[in-house]
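In response to reviewer comment 3 from the previous cycle, which asked for concrete evidence that the modeling workflow produces usable outputs, we include below a single protein chain processed end to end. The sequence was submitted unchanged, and the resulting structure tokens are shown without manual editing.
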Amino acid sequence: MRSACNCGLVVSLLVLQVAAAQAQSSYVPTGTLTCIINKPDKALHFGSARPMTCTLKQKRHPRRQRYKGILRKYGIEWGVFSRTVMRWDVYTRNGRVRRGGLQGSYGGVTLEGALNHGVGGNIVAGGPDGVLLSPIGAQTQSGSVNITTGVMRFNLKLMR
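The workflow returned the following structure tokens.
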């Protein structure tokens, strides 16, 4: 039973990756969005809201853009959470993101697990027209013992 679930998850991720590759065919890699959540949390609940700060580092533009937002999760969360870092590749049609160009709403699903150091995956969609985040983002955690699965959403707003 467990291996059937794992196979289903792997097949789902591969299908999403192929669909994402087709959608990204007219887009070019532009940079990386890194989001950090520093607020510690002890959880055994069905949802959370944690503030995050994000930095866009573009390949061809040295100036970084900083964003803030609230990460909201709806699903089962159990454990102790500390520092979490989430990372996505950013794609655009013209190879650059205008100032404030990542402002908008994003949503998807999340699956995380940690025992002191952990990893997770986030599948996201949304955002402004002309900008795509890689649909599958990587996540790392330190000082955490947790299990989380559910739906996530966040809004990004440019920091001035």
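Residues 1-16, 18-22 have pLDDT under 50 and may be disordered. We consider this sufficient to address the reviewer's concern, and the full set will be provided in the supplementary archive.
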